[in-house]
Amino acid sequence: MHLRGYMIEVTLTDDALTVEGTTKPTRIALRGQQHGDGPVVIPRADIASVGHKRANALVNGKVVVKTVGGEKYDLHFRRKSQDEFEQLAAALN
Q1: Is 91 helix (H, G, I), strand (E, B) or coil?
Q2: Which residues are CB-contacts of 6 (< 8 A; sequence separation ≥ 6)?
Q3: 28, 36 in Cβ contact below 8 A?
Q4: Any idea of the CA torsion for 4, 88, 40, 26, to the nearest 10 degrees?
Q5: What is the pLDDT of residue 32?
Q6: How far, in Å, are 5, 56, 60, 61 from residue 79 at the CA level?
Q7: Distance between CA atoms of 72 and 80, rounded to whole angstroms?
Q8: What is the pLDDT along the chain (93 residues), one digit of tens a residue?
Q9: What does pTM read for this prediction?
Q10: Are the C-beta atoms of 46 and 69 separated by less than 8 Å?
Q11: Alpha helix (H) residue ranges in 32-93
């Protein structure tokens, strides 16, 4: 599964969730400035919980992924991507 969210690209495989920022500020926000520029790769076994908030006309939606190590990743999306991100949340749960 490959999705485009708000300034991110998300790929879900049987083994991992990969999140890549499409801009340098987004990549820094995902990984932190000290961790470089590459994608975030979260093994599926490391995902502790997944939350989902629907988008509306005024506010982007998000899928919130928390890992067993305590990291939290907010995957923002626009309303036009609502169905795809709902499917992502369902696949991760």
Answers
A1: helix
A2: 60, 76, 77, 78
A3: no
A4: 40
A5: 66
A6: 10, 6, 7, 7
A7: 24
A8: 889 888 889 999 999 999 888 887 777 777 765 556 678 888 999 999 999 999 998 999 999 999 998 888 888 899 999 899 999 999 988
A9: 0.82
A10: yes
A11: 82-92
Nearest to 19 by CA among 68, 87, 88: 88
CA-CA distance, 86 to 83, in Å (whole number)? 5
> What's the pLDDT at 23?
80
CB-based contact 18:44 (threshold 8 Å): no
Q: Which residues pair with 18 in a beta bridge?
A: 11, 41
Task: Find where tokens 């979260």 sit.
Answer: 42
Cα 59 to chain centroid, rounded? 17
Q: How far is CA 17 from CA 41, 56, 65, 80, in A?
A: 6, 25, 10, 21
| SS3 state of residue 89 | helix
Scanning the structure block, which residue is given the tokens 């975030």? 40
